[in-house]
Amino acid sequence: MDSALVRKLLGLVGLGVRGRGAIVGVQQVRDAARRGKLHLAIAAKDASSNSLDKVLPLLRARGIPVFVGPDAAELGAAAGRETVAVIGIVDNGLAKGIRALSPNLMPDIRVDKGERV
Predict the structure, then answer these.
(1) According to the model, what pLDDT value does residue 107 have?
(2) DSSP code of residue 39
(3) What's the whole-model pTM score?
(4) In 1-117, where do the E strands start and end?
(5) How far is CA 99 from CA 1, 45, 66, 71, in A?
(6) Between the N and C ends of the chain, which has fewer C-beta atoms within 10 Å?
(7) Would you identify the CATH topology of the domain 3-111?
(8) In the chain, which residues have pLDDT < 50?
(9) Which of 81, 84, 78 minimizes the C-alpha distance to 98?
């Protein structure tokens, strides 16, 4: 992933967290998905399978796109935390901005029989 695009993504995520357009953590992302408030999710490329197993099946069932982002430490730094496994985008404008960075920036995670592909 191009470092300039990663910086832009992390900048948007940071703005989203500060402006309450993004939520941080597996449980909050699950809750937002259940309430129908989530537009997309960004999973850390090094997130544990335990964390992903808690959230990916629900997101897939709800048809919410999940993208692989930078590692957990970079996502965490953008969100003001140490590490973050997943960040959910609840602001539609922010979600569009993240998608517009590049259609190939973050490939979808496809879950097949509980495995990341």
Answers:
(1) 46
(2) -
(3) 0.85
(4) 22-24, 40-44, 66-69, 86-89, 111-112, 115-116
(5) 14, 17, 11, 18
(6) C
(7) 60s Ribosomal Protein L30; Chain: A; (3.30.1330)
(8) 104-108, 110-117
(9) 78
Cα separation, 48 vs 54, whole angstroms: 10
DSSP state of 108: B
Q: Quick: pLDDT tens for 43-72.
A: 999 999 999 999 999 999 999 999 888 999
Q: Residues 47-81, buried b or exposed e (16+ Cβ, 10 A)?
A: beeebbebbbeebbeeebbbbbbbebebbbbbbee
Contacts of 21 (CB under 8 A, 6+ apart): 15, 89, 90, 91, 93, 94
Strand order in the sheet with 40-44: 22-24, 86-89, 40-44, 66-69
DSSP assignment string, 59-82: HHHHT--EEEES-HHHHHHHHTSS
